[in-house]
Design brief:
This protein is α+β, with helices and mostly antiparallel strands. The chain has one domain: 60s Ribosomal Protein L30, Chain: A. It is built from 4 helices and 4 strands; from the N terminus they run E-H-E-H-E-E-H-H. It has a 4-stranded mixed sheet, with helices on one face. Strand 2, helix 2 and strand 3 form a beta-alpha-beta unit. It starts with 5 loop residues before the first strand and ends with a helix.
């Protein structure tokens, strides 16, 4: 099977944020929900990898969350659950060695249509790796690569393009 450039799959239902877990609290209701959701992400990722294959690192990951309500949510905890669910079915690790760009978007939909669309995109290898960076001297934030921009929703792409022209 050839290595794909892009793999996309959908996890139906509302996303569940990552919760802090210790040996004792992993049996709490919130922790169980988080682990179950992480497992369903893993199952969907495994099925997509069986059908399409796994893109080779370095990778960009696009997470499109759709919610039926307008409650405030902690996006980094939502992304953590999905990224942890992608391992090891779709990605080996969610460190910067493998994932170079992460884009998270939120949209509002009708009740019953909540979902997370996950797109994993193979990027062209670059010369500088995060291991080459010197602590205390952060590298400038690179612009989104064209292969990532192509998969963004239109409203997000146009907002990024407007911002880069200023």
């Amino acid at each position: 099977m050839a290595t794909p450039d892009v793999v996309t799959f959908v996890v139906p239902g509302p996303a569940v944020p990552k919760v802090r877990m210790t040996q004792r609290s992993k049996y709490s209701k919130g922790a169980k929900r988080c682990l179950e959701y992480q497992g369903s992400v893993g199952t969907r990722a495994w099925c997509a990898a069986q059908d399409d294959g796994r893109p080779e690192p370095p990778l960009a990951i696009l997470l499109e969350f759709s919610f039926a309500d307008r409650r405030r949510r902690d996006l980094d905890n939502l992304a953590k659950t999905v990224l942890d669910g992608l391992q090891p079915a779709m990605i080996d690790d969610d460190s910067t060695k493998f994932v170079r760009q992460l884009v998270v978007t939120v949209d509002h939909v009708a009740p019953g249509e909540e979902q997370v669309r996950v797109t994993v995109i193979a990027l062209e290898p670059d010369e500088e790796t995060p291991g080459d960076l010197v602590p205390g001297n952060p590298a400038p934030v690179p612009p989104l690569r064209p292969e990532v921009m192509r998969h963004l929703p239109d409203r997000v792409r146009s907002a990024i393009e407007r911002g880069s022209k200023k």
